[in-house]
Fold:
Amino acid sequence: MFNEKLVMIPGPTPVVKEIRDEMAREVQAFGDPRFVADFKAVIDGLGKMLNCSGKTFVVAGTGTLAMEMAIANSTKRGDRVLIVSHGFFGDRFVDICKRKGVEADVIRSEWGRIVPVSQIEEQLSRHRYAVMTVTHVDTSTGVCAPIAEIGEMMRKFPDTIYIVDGVCATGAEFEDVDGMNVDILFTGTQKAFGVCPGLLMLWAGKKALARRDALGETIPEYYCDFHKWLPTMDDPFNYFATPAVNLVWALKKSMELIEREGGLKARDVRMRKNALAMQAAFEELGLKALAEPCSRAITLSNLIYPEGIDDARFRSELSGEGVMVAGGLAAYAGKMFRIGHMGNIDVNTGVVVLGAIERTLEKLGQKGKLGAGVAAYLSKMA
Ligand code: PMP
Structure:
């Protein structure tokens, strides 16, 4: 293989040249009026893009810091939180809450399925919860939660802050912060925005900002305190901590690409069509998706190996064919691989990836399928 490897893990995703070029620009002082204007355009543009009438935060750090930031600004020690978990990343909130001294009740689905909205509502009626968390797409299972429907139900619980982890969804699965009654949404740049890792984006609605105010002048956390960042987010000329200048530019370029293709709805339509076509191809190749079709994500597929395929060999051969994918997590380690199909990829990427998977399966003894996945894919992409 003479070409570069395609990064098809579920984040980071391939970064197109226009965005990469922003990373290579000569850095500017963060107080330079040119950068201040660019940073402001990013913050304001993201607020509009996700329809958030509260505040948008763009901070150096990853999705996990955003998870911590969401909990830090909406709870105090001794509060009770409801965690709706559809897998590994839903469970990550449990540890974050425990460390803060927040009591966490967890409703877990069987991996591959979602917790019914009626069950969430029942649990919310039992106690007074300061916060409820839901992962829009759990990357460990490929399950997509009905966040709009949950948001409607949440109108019955106005004292509970509704937090949505959008790390593997935002910029692909359509989201609307105000319209879906979400109080805090967050993601990282490395997933469906198609930018290098390193920035978090967090949208806090008015109710979430009021909750932070009610927690008092100081909270135990410093770097992720909304109050520390608000002056910068209102006017990026104000310094709190050094912005990741080139990543901000790269994100700005990614937002331009999103606008160019018609905004978030158009992006959802494009990625949905591609995901359904990819998933038809996987089925053709005998790779079974873990998530049920009714709640399957469009951003990635979590595929269970057919009998006789060894995980380590499959992924190493596939890497030799020029495509990197990720392994399964927890109980699915060794039994499944995870492949991202989000961000700025096109039909040519799909063909290359499926061709590489077919060659790998053939090499590992699953004969007779060469071209079958590509054909299924292309017929759905026509
Ligand atoms: N939430 C979800 C749904 C994720 O997929 C991930 C990362 N895969 C995270 C949170 C954590 O994000 P990060 O690795 O950027 O800290």
Notes: The two ends are 29 Å apart (CA to CA). Residues 184 and 359 are 43 Å apart (CA to CA).
